[in-house]
Design brief:
Number of strands: 11
Largest sheet: 7 strands, antiparallel
Number of helices: 0
Strand content: over 45%
Order of helices and strands: EEEEEEEEEEE
Strand order of the largest sheet: 5-6-7-8-9-10-11
Length: about 150
């Protein structure tokens, strides 16, 4: 278990800044800069309004710290309403599933997240899975909200 605490340290007209610039997102919570230095352009995995059955697709570019770029597409669907309990409390959430991959590269992407947009613009729980080829898993993680405060 790793503590990946993110604290909002500033909000501009276009983005939310976490941990004094270590990470950023757009105003909906879509990542733009990751703590590991990756930059993400165009990602729309978190949307403004949720309803059961809603579908959307997003195309985005990830630039690694070494300058390597990859382009990906993920198709999302709101599949359920579920009550989710984590250390931060119990939330009435929409469950969202996403499946996709990268262009010209055998990368499979799977994302599942639970979000309570009336309480918090970031997912309450998020699971990420990325696999290259038939057997090489390069990411498999689960993030849970442990504390939530609005001031």
């Amino acid at each position: 278990i790793r503590d990946a605490r993110q604290t909002v340290t500033a909000i501009t007209d276009t983005e939310i800044i976490y941990n004094d610039g270590m990470a950023t997102s757009d105003l909906l919570g879509n990542s733009r800069k990751m703590p590991d230095g990756r930059l993400i352009r165009g990602l729309q995995g978190v949307i403004l309004e949720y309803s059961l059955g809603r579908k959307w697709s997003t195309r985005f570019t990830v630039t690694a710290p070494n300058g390597h770029e990859s382009n990906s597409e993920v198709d999302f669907k709101v599949v359920a309403r579920e009550s989710v309990t984590v250390q931060a409390g119990t939330f009435d959430c929409f469950k969202v599933e996403g499946e996709g991959g990268a262009y010209g590269f055998p990368l499979r992407i799977r994302v599942v997240y639970w979000i309570a947009p009336d309480k918090c613009r970031r997912p309450i729980v998020q699971e990420n899975f990325r696999q290259v080829g038939p057997a090489r898993v390069i990411q498999a993680d689960r993030m849970e909200l442990t504390e939530f405060r609005q001031t």
